[in-house]
Amino acid sequence: TYRKTFVKEGDPLRKHGASLACSACRMAAHRFKHRVARKIKGKMSEAQKSKAYAANLDAVCARSSYPQQSAVVEKQGKEMYVDWRDALGNREGKVNVKRMSPEVTDDLLAACRYLVHEEFREALRGKVLATPKGSKASDFVAWLCGPSRAAVCEPGEDSEEDDDGEGG
Questions:
Q1: CA distance 104 to 149
Q2: For the chain, what percent of residues have pLDDT higher than 90?
Q3: C-beta separation of 147 from 62 below 8 A
Q4: Burial class (CB in 10 A: 0-12, 13-18, 19+), 136
Q5: In whole angstroms, what separates CA 147 from the centre of its chain?
Q6: Using an 8 Å Cβ cutoff, are 60 and 32 in contact?
Q7: What gap in Å lies between CA 45 and CA 25, rounded to an integer?
Q8: Burial, 168: exposed, middle or buried (Cβ in 10 Å; 0-12, 13-18, 19+)?
Q9: Crossing angle for the helix pair 18-35 and 102-113, nearest 10 degrees?
Q10: CA 19, CA 16: separation in Å to the nearest integer?
């Protein structure tokens, strides 16, 4: 397929393996929803939507949007990114900490920028500009990370049951 032909194994999203790619994509999608999609209302004109999209896009992958310190943990056999404080405070439940360093957050930021500003910039723009009147921000995790776009999360793994560290 097109995606398999042109996506490089070493891109910032996928280079650390499938479960971390899904985790990073989920975090980016949640931030896109909170920082951009929720600011775009169906009743806005296309020009207003475009302006709101452009004004808020950089906030999605800003360092301030991510935890100060991130960690890679293993939970139920899958690696995932978490806020180090959540792992330390046992808010993630029983986990095995694999890696914790400033580079972990750098990896998350690089994956976010790759997804939001490169690979799916136009698709995300199209999706938010097409927001119909009276609709709420849709499930960006399933849409962005599932089989139809980035294809890094399995169906069912891409639901929005939690906020993936979307605090402040």
A1: 24
A2: 61
A3: no
A4: exposed
A5: 15
A6: yes
A7: 29
A8: exposed
A9: 70
A10: 8
Token code pair at residue 106? 């750098």
Own/partner contacts of 122-126, CB < 8 Å, gap of 24 or more, are 123/149, 124/32, 124/36, 125/50, 125/53
Q: How far apart are CA 168 and CA 11, in angstroms?
A: 27
Residue type, 116: V
Q: What band does 136 get if pLDDT is binned at 50, 70 and 90?
A: low
Which two tokens mark 156?
């069912």
Predicted local distance difference test score (pLDDT) of residue 112: 98
- Tokens found for residue 89: 């405070």
d(CA 162, CA 165): 8
- Residue 29 and residue 18: Cα distance in Å, rounded? 16
- Map tokens 């989920």 to a residue: 26
Q: How far apart are CA 115 and CA 167, in angstroms?
A: 21
Cβ atoms of 137 and 37 within 8 Å: the answer is yes
